[in-house]
Amino acid sequence: MLIDWFTVAAQVINFLILVWLLKRFLYKPILDAIDEREKRIAAELADADAKKAEAKAERDEFQHKNETFEQQRATLLEQAVDAAKAERQRLLDEARQAADALSAKRMEALDKDSHNLSQAIRGRTQEEVFAIARKTLADLASASLEERMAEVFTRRLRELDEQAKDTLGQSLKTAAEPALVRSAFDLPEAQRAAIQNALNETFSADIAIRFETAPELVGGIELGTNGQKLAWSIVEYLTSLENGVEELLKAQSRPEAEPKPKPEPPKPEATNS
Amino acid sequence: MRLSPDAMIFWQVGFLKLNATIVFTWGLMLVLAVGAKLITRKLSTDLNRSRWQNLLEIVVTAIEKQIEEVGLSQPRKYLGFLGTLFLFVAVSALFTVFPGFEPPTGSLSTTTALALCVLVAVPLFGIEGRGVGGYLKSYMEPTVIMLPFNLISEVSRTLALAVRLFGNMMSGAMIIGILLSITPFVFPIVMTLLGLLTGMVQAYIFFILATVYIAAATQIRKPEPTS
């Protein structure tokens, strides 16, 4: 008989023991290890997914921020461009204003220069004229210039036309205060007497006069009373010359195509004002 | 001529005896248990693990997958019994490469013991899966007339399990023994290789048949026809 029943029983027991042993030492630990690893891998995968999702969220956020930043940058750039344009316009305006101001200032300076020049020319001319006249008169006559002036004055007094003579005479006679004779320098007694005589003769009355020195006349004599004036002085000639010179300067400051007007020669004149 | 290692008796007192079958079985149990204990002593749960651990994982997961493929939805419940069946038969076949080793499965007593275990395990798992009534009812399917045939099939398949394994293993050892006396060199090695292959195939057949029987007993709908 091939079957030994004792052996069968022993093998059954042996097999059951082996089942228990292998369950205890093989299947359980191995399966536990596998489960553990799978759990771990699943956890890691989940973690990776979570990180991926997080990264995606961060990327989206970053993109969004980037877009916002781009927009802001564009806006800022636009604003900056506008501001730069405005600033440029402002600077240009300022520069134009400054240029205008400078030009006005230069114009003013030019005017001032021309004024100063005309002043200088005037003073110089007066001096020159006076010197030339004095020299000429001194050369021409034995009498001094002052004498000649007094003579001229008295002659003019006498040569006044009737209407002017009447008006002046009326004024002289009715004046409460003595008539004022102004001259550039102190008149000698002889001239004072001559002027007194000439007045007396001209207006046929005893005219009270008072002499006064007025250097601003440069040279000449002026009779003033009660708003009436009879005068001959170098100032008038000079004023005439000055007008001529001013016209000349004005002509120079204008476009040069215009021909320069020549100053008018001075004219002696008696004015009633 | 010795047909079974049962005949090699080391020690006997009356009814009790210690034959080669039992001794080699103990040896196998020792190797399996100690080996498993040594390897699983330092199991790693991360991605780096030892080669032995890899080997055991492959074996265990392969068995688990096979059980699942046959149709048992909870393979871990049956892994202890079915996996041990396969491992015991496979390792005893594998150890035939060691000279002097007599595979315990070459003893009809051992194969009968294993077949009896299957015979008992099938109704136990069946009752656990379907309840007593449900399981007993499966003997009367499709009709009551089939009851005796089902019972006969239950017994005959157990017998077939035992005899098939015994025949294959015994014949393998027998052929090698005969060949050794005829052509002592080279040719027995080839036959040993063939014997290894047969042993592995037999282990797989024994294991898969037991699995199929249990699956048939535990499945509520469409019980598979048993062989």
Helix content range of chain B: over 70%
- The gross shape of chain B turns out to be globular
For this structure, the quaternary state is heterodimer
| Measured distance between first and last alpha carbons of chain A | 182 Å
Structural class of the helix and strand makeup of chain B?
A: mainly alpha
Biggest sheet strand line-up of chain B = 1-2
Q: Mean pLDDT score of chain B, rounded?
A: 88
Mean pLDDT level of chain A: 80
Report, as a whole number of angstroms, the end-to-end distance of chain B: 34 Å
What portion of the residues of chain A fall into strands of 2 or more residues? 5-15%
Helices and strands of chain A, in order, run as: HHHEHEEEH
Largest sheet of chain B: 2 strands, antiparallel
Structural description of this entry:
The complex is a heterodimer of chains A (273) and B (227). Chain A is an alpha+beta fold. Chain A has a domain at 115-253. Helix content of chain A is 73%, strand content 8%. Chain A has five helices and four strands, in the order αααβαβββα. Chain A has helices at residues 5-140, 145-159, 162-174, 189-203, 234-253, and strands at residues 179-183, 209-213, 220-225, 228-233. A four-stranded mixed sheet of chain A has the order 2-1-3-4. Chain B has 227 residues and is mostly helical. Chain B contains six helices and two strands, in the order ββαααααα. In chain B, α3 (75-94) packs antiparallel against α6, α4 (108-137) packs parallel to α6 and α5 packs antiparallel against α6 (187-218). The longest helix of chain B has 36 residues, at 147-182. Chain B is globular and about 60 Å long. At the A-B interface, α1 of A face β2, α1, α2, α3 and α4 of B.
Features:
heterodimer, A: 273 residues, alpha+beta, 5 helices, 8% strand, B: 227 residues, mainly alpha, 70% helix, globular
